[in-house]
Amino acid sequence: MAVTADWLYQAITNKQGVIVKLADISWFLHAQGVAFCPVHDTLLVSDLHFEKGSYLVQSGNPLLPLDTFATLQRLLKLIKLFKPARVVCLGDSFHDKGAFTRLSADDRTALSHLIDMVAEWVWILGNHDPDLPAEIPGNKRKQLSIGNIRIVHEPEADASYQMVGHYHPKGKVSVNRHAMRGKCFVLTETLLIMPSFGQYTGGLDVNDTAITEHAPKAARQCFLMYEGALYQLNERGRKRQ
């Protein structure tokens, strides 16, 4: 593990992250959109959506298909920072069935380098990538357990504690007439919904019924990512002091 208790304290002081508990396991939620578990030396990242840009280009969208490169570079910095023994990608890592075949040679090399940096790399299968090609290195699984927590792409009714992706939660707040909008972590006593990490991923408002069905306003905390900092929001969308 690269990070120390002093580093965590400083990061929390500087609003770069927050420590939360789920099923009595501590997780550090980082303002760049990953969750790190010191006890299990595991870094969790969700909804990378590699090659979404090239997928949109196929239908005439003018976006430059550079999202995979940008996503890989951001993830590289975080792996260098935390130096985890294990990385878990929480589903929808590839935007569509043909995404892996569209990866450039440079991006394939960069991805292989990331996977080689850790002892274990786990791909949780999502609705966008339910079948990953065998040539992609790493373990492909429908779910993973960390203690009593089920790590799975979408919530499952029979799990007591879960960490999921899929919803791409986003929120907004106005502080001193300054509007802040960003991706969000959403936490209840039994569930953590991760923000999407991919460069071109959109988002679903935290108050959308698809999210409140699993994380009711009265039972949750929302942590909004904005310009390298993490802000806890109350249920009326104001920054909590």
Automatic annotation (TrEMBL):
GO terms for molecular function: endonuclease activity; hydrolase activity; ligase activity. Its EC number is 3.1.-.-. It is an enzyme of class 3 (hydrolase). It comes from the Bacteria. Residues 43-143 form the Calcineurin-like phosphoesterase domain. InterPro entries: Calcineurin-like_PHP, Metallo-depent_PP-like, PdeM-like. Keywords: Endonuclease, Hydrolase, Ligase, Nuclease. The keyword Secreted does not apply. PANTHER family: BLR1149 PROTEIN. This is Ligase-associated DNA damage response endonuclease PdeM.
